[in-house]
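2024-03-11 09:14:02 INFO worker-7 job=invfold-0412 stage=load source=structure_tokens
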């Protein structure tokens, strides 16, 4: 690669390494804004395409390439969110944000596997919990962008305004409205060790087909939501109630066939479970926990949302609509009488 030429004002064209060093930040922003790693990657790719469509003179004129890239990515995500609403209205069943594993658990990250670029990994923190992402889905596109950029990434409202296309005062109101949604929808989770113990107890009770133990771990008004996207079996609407879910899980436990393994894994920064059929991930479970009980279970079965769990860029080839592997989603089972 040749060295950038020096213009008359002495400012060189930003180097490739400088521009690409922003990729991880852009992926982090775009994933939170879109709730989909695939869409986030597309948004970041489009952002870079727009940067490299600029002339060298235009690139030199940009004081902060990182700020420029974030602004462009934010605008792209805002447009995607607008069209995503229409797409999700026609989505088969419930739409759940794409679950992410812990960085060390990315499939292909170990020896002999397909390596995953660290820049493509999303930093995991409280703003990535499934419960938080689901609340973000209830916001308008403008609310979501203003809130995420300001409250999560600490961008000043003056910069957010340039992305959303509104005044700083209007963006402040958008973020405030979004903040109220978060406060009224989320409860502080118990410590990580406590969450892990509850999820582990749930796994053991499920494997032991212990209805009483399951009911004790579930909030009386617990909900379970499944996402198959029309590509894997699951119910179309959330199920509710501790006894109904406990009996449903026990029924599934009785139908589990050989080759099925339930593993404890980190899902979006919190303890979760992963179901593997013959070594292939077919369902990822995320949990919301308040106190000592599970209040919500999300079961993601859409193979297009399981790429980080099955091999970067790959989707599991077996997404059966019936048979033992379809039974690993509790929301796929008929409600027990």
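2024-03-11 09:14:09 INFO worker-7 stage=emit residues=337
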């Amino acid at each position: 690669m040749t060295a950038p030429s020096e213009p008359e004002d002495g400012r060189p064209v930003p180097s490739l390494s400088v521009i690409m060093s922003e990729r991880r930040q852009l992926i982090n922003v775009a994933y939170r804004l879109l709730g989909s790693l695939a869409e986030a990657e597309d948004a970041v790719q489009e952002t870079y395409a727009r940067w490299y469509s600029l002339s060298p003179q235009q690139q030199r004129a940009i004081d902060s390439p990182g700020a420029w890239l974030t602004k462009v990515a934010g605008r792209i995500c805002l447009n995607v969110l607008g069209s995503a609403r229409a797409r999700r209205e026609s989505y088969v069943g419930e739409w759940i944000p794409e679950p992410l594993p812990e960085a060390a658990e990315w499939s292909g990250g170990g020896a002999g596997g397909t390596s995953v670029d660290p820049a493509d990994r999303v930093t995991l923190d409280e703003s990535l919990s499934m419960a938080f992402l689901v609340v973000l889905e209830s916001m308008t596109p403008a609310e979501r962008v203003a809130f995420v950029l300001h409250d999560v990434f600490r961008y000043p409202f003056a910069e957010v305004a340039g992305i959303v296309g509104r005044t700083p005062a209007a963006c402040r109101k958008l973020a405030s409205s979004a903040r109220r949604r978060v406060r009224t929808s989320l409860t502080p989770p118990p410590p990580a060790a406590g969450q892990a113990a509850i999820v582990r107890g749930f796994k053991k009770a499920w494997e032991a087909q212990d209805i009483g133990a399951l009911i004790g771990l579930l909030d009386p008004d617990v909900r379970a939501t499944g996402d198959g996207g029309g590509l894997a079996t699951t119910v179309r609407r959330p199920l509710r109630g501790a006894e109904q879910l406990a009996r449903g899980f026990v029924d599934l436990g009785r139908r589990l066939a050989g080759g099925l393994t339930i593993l404890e894994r980190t899902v979006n920064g919190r303890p979760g479970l992963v179901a593997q059929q013959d070594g292939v991930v077919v369902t990822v479970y995320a949990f919301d926990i308040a106190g000592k009980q599970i209040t919500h279970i999300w079961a993601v079965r859409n193979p297009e949302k399981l790429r980080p769990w099955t091999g970067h860029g790959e989707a599991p080839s077996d997404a059966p609509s019936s048979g033992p592997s379809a039974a690993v989603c509790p929301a796929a089972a008929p409600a027990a009488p």
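2024-03-11 09:14:09 INFO worker-7 stage=report msg="The first strand starts at residue 218 and ends at 227."
2024-03-11 09:14:10 INFO worker-7 job finished
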